[in-house]
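Hi Y.,

Following your request, here is the sequence exactly as I used it, all 630 residues.
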Amino acid sequence: MSTKSWFSKKKTKYKNNEIFHIRHFGRGIYYDIKNRLVSYYISDIKEGLTYRTIPSTIYIFFTNLLPAIAFAQDMFDHTKNSYGVNEILLSSAMAGIIFGLFSGSPLCIVGVTGPISIFNYTVYEIIEPKGIPYFPFMCWICLWSMLFHFLLAFTNAVNFMRYVTKFSCDVFGFFINIVYIQKGIQILSNQFEKGTVASGFASVMVALLMGIFGISAQFFGSKSQYLPYKIRTFIRDYSTPLCVVFFTGFIHFGGYLNNVDFIKLPITKTFRPTDTVNRRDDWFIRFWEGVTVGNVFLAVPFAILLTALFYYDHNISSLICQSSEFPLKKPASFHYDFLLLGITTGVSGLIGIPAPNGLIPQAPLHTHSLCVYEFDPKTGANIISKVVEQRLSNILQGLMTLGMMTRPLLVVLGTIPQCVLAGLFWIMAITTIDGTDVMKRLRFLFLNKEWKKKLAQIVIADYRAEQERKAMSSLGNGCINYENESDVAFSRTRGDIPSTECSSRKENTSTTEEKVEHIVPADFPYEYYITEPKYFIIYLVFELLAFAGEYSITCTKGAIGFPGVLILILVLVPIVFPRVFPKEQLDLLDSEAADELILESLKLKKQTSETENVSSIDYELGHLNSMTGR
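Below is the corresponding structure, written out as tokens. Let me know if you'd prefer a different format.
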């Protein structure tokens, strides 16, 4: 890469252990623009001129467009036709184009989410009985929220996201996936209420068939070894869009399907607002009409809740799509992106559309779609070798969404049955929920004990060998001094303790490397195997309780307080966990949400010396040694 990375020591103008404080007004935004946007913008464009951008654009276009329309239907029903398809299309298009062109984290997909749809119609249900005009009031909420976004961004308050660990990200990701599954079921149940029994059962059949084929194709393309790699890649890239197209046409196959009246997606006039009763027939909201000074300040607490929601939701989405599972090479941008989100929030209020923010699972799905895989002969699995880090796919899907507002494409959109939306929700949720930490821990908990024991021996032995090689390479030709033999990692054969002398260590390392070739696939990280069972279960219970808190409040009239639950979890984790888990166990259970490269824009870690690196490796090796007899 021609441009040097922004965290190069030569380029650093401040101490390595310095953290952006409030007194450094605007510094986070400045460094985000300088070190991410300016340094890598040309690279983002050039790297986007590859084949991988094409399937990624098509895939994210469908996975962003259709769920957003489903949420539009929710708001349409709950706000007496205040929001419709055009508002959702315009919001998603604006977000895609603006964040694709100007964002410092272009991998993060921004659009209309379930939480913002709940927020919008909850506000409507609160103020409508009071006679307050909805669109001017929502405009004031968005304008106040824009001000709060600016305040948080310029005072570097986004820096507090450095306290977010994988716990918060995993629980929130699991919650969104469950909501998507529930949303699919809700769409199908509505077919019985709004249509006939025949259309209801037929919709269930279509959704199930689409879900089965779509999920199977995704797992076949990404996790199997059948057929050549290029064919599997094609199936993985295009299976979801092709499912949408095929099952939209499936209802026209004839026979008894001709007797079923499937409920389609609602559409409206081209480039016009849906509600022409409570607003004028243009996109500008007269926010000074019909509201009093009291109403303006009444919007402040709602704006605080909206800002809290976006602070958590958008930044978590950005962290997840740039998490440590992806081998990213470019830094992230949080302060500047939150400022940009404030601008889109204010614009959304002025033109009367739902404010967009970071999307889960679309954001991590976007990164997944840009991954290049390689076959690993050691584990027999497909591993991610690199990610095509570019911004063209985000821009293009935004332009395609804007094009959907033209009359011919709106008519095409109106031919899609709602049951296809249900199938798409299930495909997106089930293909991603399997990779969440909550689901992995549940699966691991119920593994056969004998099989778990065999896997533990293989995974732990391989990890020891890997750490041993890292320790040796970090010292070059030097030797590591151990105080006693218990600190020295075992060889693959249990009980075969190598000598602490350098020559013996080298011989043992080479022997270990030869035996690594015999490893079998393992689906779980090594931390699962060496964590004490009781702490493993307690941590899983905490994850399920946090999920229950997030999910339960969305099912009540207090759903507008959902951001408060998110922030509460974020605050309690660093306070409660150190008091419940021993430090060595907590290090195994929870960790930072992303790699150091991504977190550099949130904090500047003090550089660790070589001896500190070696001692930390020695500690882990010794800990593994003690856990083997468990």
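The CA atoms of residues 132 and 291 lie 7 Å apart.

Thanks again,
Q.
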